[in-house]
Amino acid sequence: MSETSLITAAPGASARKRINGIDIFMWVLRCAVAAIALFGTVATLLEGRYSLAQWFDFAMFGLTLGSVYALIALGYTMVYGVLRMINFAHGDITMTGAFAGYFVATGASRSGLLAAHPILAILAIFTIAMVTCIAVALATERFAYRPFRNSPGQAPLICAIGVSFVLEQTVRGMFGSGVKSYPVTPWQDAVVTPLGMRIPVINLFVMGCAISAMVILYLIVHRTRMGMAMRAVSEDKAAASLMGVDVDRVVVFAFALGGAMAGVASVCYALIYQQVHFFMGFAPGIKAFGAAVLGGIGSIPGAMVGGMFLGLIEAVGPALFLDGLGITAPYQLRDAIGFLVLLMVLIFRPQGLFGEAMAKKRA
Amino acid sequence: MILEIENMSLAYGNIEAVRGVSIKIVDGGIVALVGANGAGKSSTLNAISGLIPIKNGSIRIDGQSSAALKPHEITRRGIVQVPEGRRIFGRLSVEENLLMGAFSRTDHAAIAEDRDHMFELFPRLKERRRQVAGTLSGGEQQMVATARGLMARPRVLLMDEPSMGLAPLVVEQVFDTIQAINAAGTTVLLVEQNALMALEIAHHAYVMEHGEIVLEGPGAELAVDERVVSIYLG
Ligand SMILES: Nc1ncnc2c1ncn2[C@@H]1O[C@H](COP(=O)(O)OP(=O)(O)OP(=O)(O)O)[C@@H](O)[C@H]1O
Ligand SMILES: [Mg+2]
Questions:
Q1: CB-based contact (8 Å) between A223 and chain B?
Q2: With the CA atoms of A299, A253, A212 and A342 taken in that order, what torsion angle do they form, in degrees rounded to the nearest 10?
Q3: ipTM
Q4: Which of A4, A228, A247 sits opposite B96 (nearest CB)?
């Protein structure tokens, strides 16, 4: 963590151990989970309760939700990359953007702007939400994380959890604890039917926004000076500082990029569920964290793929895995499936799909 | 004087790694700092680069104390370190590594020129410019590290064991390169295990032992000094 890490060498690769009781238990667990999923899947498919069109709907919704998770996951992964720290307040930072967007949307709806100039109004909603998320993210970094940057132990982590509470309770105190419904415009409920498939316009819109944001992020990270510096800092802070990189500025840059993505995500999320709530950041925050871990925390493409994957599992999973097991109302278990995936990743593949083998980095 | 270390000490916790070291680096020369493992050579370079705080004494760049400067600010003053173990950015391409070296500069046209110049100096790197640097061989990685350091257009290049882990023939090349860099006007502070080779090309040299400077003099003189020979040739 400290800048003097130039001196301490990375520890060697972990030695291969002999098979022990825990390994056996893990394998039994893995096989059990796989068996249940397989059994449920086969049973569901044999029953044939869902039509192809329904499966398509599930998948479409999953990818839409997944693209939002991916955006939030990017914030976790970039901050982890530069600081090796989990920003547990990131879900709640996203929530503040949703609220800011909500106020712009209701204002625009009342004044008629939303109906008269929908594109302008949407742009305003996204802009304000992004600016809010960036501002909150930067303030969090400056006042909550930076003072503890070099302190030993779990101080930064505890601080992040504290910030999470502060944000939730501040919003609750200021705007109440009720659920506020997002203004709806007619096009939000519209449906297009290419090739006989029903696709809600809102899904296409959300995916379009999310994917555009990710493409822009990718270009920033791979084509700009600061993006390159951020990748360098993620690999080796001390070496980057020897190149003349101001590590503090790169950290700020990572938080700002993560905030911007959270801003886009917050509006998309509110558009999907058409409501805002002070606690709304928690579940997507945890799931996006899971998506980041799933993709390999620190990896930008990993966060994107992980988010999509988690969204898909969550949307298709209940019907596919649970329905055939005779569980009634499998949809109630959607969140459970999401969290279960997170748990499974942490247990079985903590380095994630695109995981960087930290110990192997320096030969 | 471009860089002057006076009576400098530093410690890791209770372990005093460097005690009362004084090193003068005048413009244009090659200064060698040699010594056994754990003598405190890397610690000295890292203190110069601002990565480790010093406990006593002073480090002055152009006569001004560098105590309040952060590592990137020291690099921007032209004191650039090529660290021990190369420390290249393994997931960045070869070309991006070179551009990272020039990070503190803003003269874009000249940066592109320097990059092309590096590709002339190290043709191997030109062939592999788009390759991810982590997949290069050890020798090629050392080329990247050296070229990356040079891309900063340093006034003083601090090189920490550039020959480490390289085949003898490649070591020769590295030393030739160091002399060429120096001939082109860059001051070099060279830390080496490979003491005799370093002393041969050094204008002035310091021998370090257990955190202290035990010998000092022109490189050619130290290369034939009994004490150095007895330490390094046994
Ligand atoms: N991060 C650290 N924490 C504690 N002690 C350290 C640290 N880095 C170096 N030391 C100690 O400081 C002393 C000097 O180390 P240093 O790396 O400066 O030696 P060196 O001369 O560069 O050796 P080598 O030739 O092996 O690279 C050693 O005894 C080492 O164990
Ligand atoms: Mg050393």
A1: no
A2: 40
A3: 0.91
A4: A228
